[in-house]
Amino acid sequence: MGLYETLIGKITTTLQAVTSVKDVFSVPKSKLTKFPCVFFKPTGFTNTFETNSENMAIYRFMMVVMVGTSGTTPETAFGTVLPHTVDDIIAKFNADWNQGVIDGHRCTVKIDSADSWEMSEEQDGLVAYAPLNVEIRLLTNN
């Protein structure tokens, strides 16, 4: 299995373990039914040859945390549920990826805000969302 497949699997496993997240997917869906949910996708890759024996590989992903307003108010979805879910995701990544190893490669993870949090009108009402950047750095052997 290649590193992209491994990383997508590990990200999925980490997100599925976040109790406040009800659905996780890495392939776009036409209809969202469970909230809060998280969609993520690869956004880029950098491979830097550090020495004759090591590379620094950087895998970047975009993660979008979404909260629907059905059954609640936009204020609660945007002001309470969304921040709580983002905090839970960051805490889970901190716990699961703390100077860890993936396929024998030392790795570090950085999560930051990709853009401002927004609310949009979707087919079933308003959805609050928070885009996040996830950057995974792996030290690999040549």
Structural write-up:
Helix content is 26%, strand content 45%. The two termini are 17 Å apart. It has helices at 3-16, 74-96; strands spanning 23-25, 37-49, 54-68, 101-102, 105-113, 118-122, 125-141. Strand 4 (101-102) and strand 5 form a beta hairpin. The protein has two helices and seven strands. It is α+β, with helices and mostly antiparallel strands and 142 residues long. The chain is elongated. The model has no long low-confidence stretch (mean pLDDT 88).
Give the tags.
7 strands, 142 residues, alpha+beta
Helix content: 25-40%
Structural class: alpha+beta
Radius of gyration: 16 Å
Q: Find the count of extended strands (DSSP E, 2+ residues).
A: 7
Q: What series of H and E elements makes up the topology?
A: HEEEHEEEE
Task: Report the sheet with the most strands, covering strand number, pairing sense and barrel closure.
Answer: 7 strands, mixed
Give me the number of helical elements.
Answer: 2
Low-confidence stretches: none
Beta strand %? over 45%
Cα separation of the termini: 17 Å
Q: Name the shape in a single word.
A: elongated
The overall average pLDDT, rounded, is 88
Tell me the layout of helices and strands:
Layout: H1 3-16, E1 23-25, E2 37-49, E3 54-68, H2 74-96, E4 101-102, E5 105-113, E6 118-122, E7 125-141
Question: Nutshell version of this structure?
Answer:
With 142 residues, this protein is an alpha+beta fold. The protein contains two helices and seven strands. Helix content is 26%, strand content 45%.
